[in-house]
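Work package 3, deliverable 3.1, input record:
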Amino acid sequence: VSRPTGHVSSDRLGEAARHASLDFLRDAERLHVESCERCRRLYGGYRLTDRLLAAPWREVKLPAVELERPTRRAILADRLGGFAAGFEPRTLAPITAIAAIALLVGAAVALPRLIPAPAAGTASPSRTPSMAGGTQAWPSTSSQATPVPQATGSGKAPSKPPEPTPAITPTPASAALALNPARLSGDPLAWSPNGDHLLMWVSGRIQIRDASGRLEGGVAADAAAWYSPSLVAVATRSSGWRSPGTETVKLVDAAGHVAAALPGIYDIGGSSFAALLGSGSGELTIAGQGLTPGASSSEADSTGWRFVLWNGKLSGSHRGVPIAFTRDGRRLAVLHPGAVSGAGVSGWLEIVSVPSLETIAEFPDLSLRVEPGAMGSAYGPDAAFSPDGRYLLASGTLVDVSRGAAVIVGKGGWLADGSLVTASADGLLRWSNGHAAPDPRFPGAGTVEASRHGELIYFYGDERPPLYLDGAGTLHALSLAGVGSIQRLLIAPDGRTIALDGRATDGSSIAAVVSLTAVGPG
Amino acid sequence: VKGANVLVGVRERFDVDYNRFFADLTALCRALGAGSAAEDIAQESILHARERSNQLRDESKLEPWLRRIAARRTFEYLRHQRRHEARGPDDTVVAFLPSDPSVSVDVAAAITRLPERERVAVVLVYALGYEQAEAAAVMSVTRGTVATLLHRARRHLAERLAAYATERDLP
């Protein structure tokens, strides 16, 4: 105990901790430690440290905010805490004293200014936000009762009188339902087949978040698709940007851990459009213009597009670009492109069986164009089979896949009962038996997204609130706090959550998820 | 011709020992904090090294070389992530920590907030069981530097955990 501070040196305490006994110390040192709280604590710290370092290590998931390197302010606070605990008092006591004096002086000067004097005779209005007022004013559904006489715009005019719209209870209240979106960074890409997870694209990485937007995992990838409700297929560039065109495909779980790596290296053309397509029930296609395992040059079509199917084992290659699986995953729509661009694929349609890839039907005379899907950057084909697999809706064109007949209906989605809803310049159209009926509750040009359960969202791309039809058929106008306008929106297959991107009320870009569980039984 | 034989031998080792290399590098990247990106970084490191195996003069130094590449890529990834990936208050991260019952968020924070070089030295030597010389090769420093970093890290941890250990009557 010869140090100027009178304490036992840190190194001596560390040595004693290594021997797990204070008996290692000289008598004077030991007596000091036994009577000095500071030295006893430090000895305890060394003992705990040695125990931790000797333990096996493993990965632990913890809140990021607790583990990130602290700011300078936090470091200062930490040091002050150390001072309070008895560390380095000589160094920090003057600083702390000066800070305390400055704080007291500052408080004495500032407090009188911060406390406002009560205003005499002027009662200020309540600042509690009103559900019925403000900028979210939107006509009640009853005021929209005038039916739109004829659907026009991008939708083809129906040739027969429209069938009556099914009776649906209008919203009793005119107020918009206020919801609080959870803001996210990145572009939402796709909901998992059960709606429990959301894929996001963030700075060259795929993030997997839960339905509340909480990050669960991530992986560097060029493309991703849901292979099953719990596994995501990701294509990862193998060798960096200097040697493009070689990708490996892996299946990762929600935490981003690799569950399986598919055999082979693929050339998917460096583009995420149409590269991976998942059925969500255990089938995956990998498409590209380069060589894939099992391919031969004679199989290439005019644009060189081929694909392989993975369902636990890898198929041989097949010509064309897969654009949609049926919901049961047993059939696949394949486009044989004559031209491919970042904005879409045009070509003729073939329907093949899964997993044999044998042709069920082909329509060489039917020219179809499929554009990238609604979310992300050139992400996924905009094509979906009807629930019974009889029809294919591809970028606004409805195809009867048993006959190859096509009609332009406008972009939209399928409801659970097999009916089709599309958006037109005059509002929402409901299709049944080949006829369209306008739904007057959704007026004006907008965009419709439908869940597999039957809920639908109609939104406008401006300040008007999106309209949500829940599973019980009740219509709601949604007031999304902080969201100025919606550019793109994805509704989860279970209809309980939406992911959106657009503009915030302050004009900045915004991406968010919004839970709809508070809205009706949907 | 001799050089060519070495090259062929190295490339064969990549093919034969791929799984072992991949597991070793994945563990290294995870320990350094790469989390779910560890497999990607490990794979890219192996492919990168294989392409440049002609630069390796001594086959016996293949594994330290691979580890150095993986460590460097992990640090690049972490720097990129810190710059570009804003984390929300509810986000979680995967940290590599001792599996001791006394490990709480406070203890985890004490470990993860060590200065980077000290934390890396601790992880390589204590978590992955590297010899100090192996750790030095990965970190591109001398063995003496690693010993110094470990000494400092132990002292820092002891100081940060002193109050925690006393309050909970540990150990």
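The helical segments of chain A are 10-18, 27-35, 37-54, 64-67, 72-85, 89-114.
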